[in-house]
Amino acid sequence: MTMKRLLVLSLGCWLLAGCAPKIGSLERIAVVPRPSSVAAGEGEFRLEPCTPLYFRAADSLSCAAAAFDELAHALFGASLPVMQGDSLRAGTVGLLRVDSLREDAYCLTVEPDRVMIAAGGDRGAFYAVQTLRQLISATCFSKKAIGGATGGVSIPAVRIDDAPTMPYRGLMLDVARHFFTVEEVKRTLDLMALHKLNVFHWHLTDDQGWRIEIRKYPKLTEIGSVRRRTLIGHDPGGEYDETCRYDETPHGGYYTQAEIREVVDYAARRCITVIPEVEFPGHAVAALASYPWLGCTGEQYEVRQTWDIDDRVFCVGRDSTFDFIEGVLDEVLELFPSPLIHIGGDECPDKMWACCPHCRERMRREGLTSERQLQGYATTRVERYLAARGRRLMGWDELLDGGVSPTAVVMSWRGSEGGIRAARRGNPVVMAPTTHCYLDYYQTADTTSEPLAWGGCLPLEQVYALDPYEGLNARERANVLGVQANLWTEYIADFAQAQYMLLPRLAAVAERGWCPAGNDYADFRRRLRHLTGYYDALGYRRASHGTED
Predict the structure, then answer these.
(1) Is a pLDDT exceeding 50 seen at residue 19?
(2) Catalytic residue positions?
């Protein structure tokens, strides 16, 4: 009997037997993000070190197979025996591609005598393995227990049919303000995989540091990757004066191109696309400190040490500036296969342009009537460069202020208004508003008990209340690609604090991207308490806000 016929028979018997949820079973079946459909069954499957894993080589479910292998190593310290073919005996786990399912959809069936994962493609099968992980007791994954479950682990009988609603479910990590090592970035990708997030937005350049090796322009990392000191004591929104406190230790770091490729490959094996962000035309001081001719005045600057918006931006009146950014992007495109390339575009003052003869001449030649239109010109020029190479431009919602083509992808951060405006005019949109998605904000109103953060309060319940479709009709909603959590690191100096700010709020963003319809915060908290056990077992640092009984 073929695996596909076995699948049909297995699911048919399941439905005939009846799948009324049992309270005890559902308490154990606590998956985040919430699956589309869950039906608890009777009994459990015993996964043991000798349990065979069956799959067909032609199905090409390599990411899922690797994820299952990692799961087995964590539990048993070794791989499961692997068998290929169309037959599936009792006491086995099967991976099967099914053409009738979407590529990122899956059906996970756990019965007392077998586990079956049917998926439309590698992504769906990978997500099924992440769900299966959450059905196993978290204690089995603790550092003390790694590889020690030689007697096997139990998985409750269940059928889960599932697929994400939104194609874009992202996390942005700012490594420009504070640098994180390759291993810390990989740990972040592991965390994303657990939450079924599929886009890692890597903020690689800013005023305070340039973090990507560009061989054509070596000074970007020789000079631009290191700042002399770092602001550590400051009231966000207040003045930068003599009351500010600094860490006088130089802060630096960057990723070699070999390390970039290593991270991109690591992410791909977890079904995660890496989108690089190279800021243009604002947030440019690290680049200007490296190559002063990129600015309007040609002055020699230092890499910025404070966090406010800087007037010193790229000169868009000189063609040499565009030669530079295209030279940078030539190497970026070789490193990142992502169809989307993020150029920032936010918080770009036009003060220097107003005084620059080159920018004034650019305005005259292009028939522009305001300095703000220069940003639209610069963005459109870079967008044409990317389009000619088969890529698509992405940027923050300030792109709309200078004029942008309907093909640019807009990331809405100043609330949801920019995203609503972009969706209504036909632009693809990712919702990442400060009101729900800025995880560098305090988690409670009692800031005295929290590490220094950017300001504002964003508790777990407010993150979960995100409605990415708010204010949009059905036609406009089709332009919303998804949601994204943002972690800016001005006041996040190490990876332990980064984890604390992400967890558990990242789970709320992940769920709103996976299943934005419905809003059952009480049920989310029930399932989240189960997930926090995995955070603890896997050694992640987390906040307890919103997870207490």
Answers:
(1) no
(2) 206, 283, 347
